[in-house]
Design brief:
This protein has about 100 residues and is an all-alpha fold. It has four helices and no strands. Helices cover about 70% and strands about 0% of the residues. The longest helix has about 30 residues.
Amino acid sequence: MMFESTELVRFSAHTGETGWGWHDMMGFGYFGIFGALLMLLFWIAIIAGVVWFIKWLVEQSSSGSRKSALEILDEKYARGEIDDEEYERRKRKLLEG
């Protein structure tokens, strides 16, 4: 008999008949700390995904405007900023390293 009355008190506390009632593990229900950690990991993953996506978008938009060193060298040669010797010397240097 005593066991039944104790269980009834625990059940009524869990069902919330007295307001919020008593819950296991600081109000997180039966998930306990495990549920809180899963929620934290979920939000960290969401935030990291958004940051990664923004970084990817920025890299995609700026990658089209980048020129290689050889392209810049070719442009300088075409504009007449450097002569034949300088062009060949710089081109050899770029292709070596």
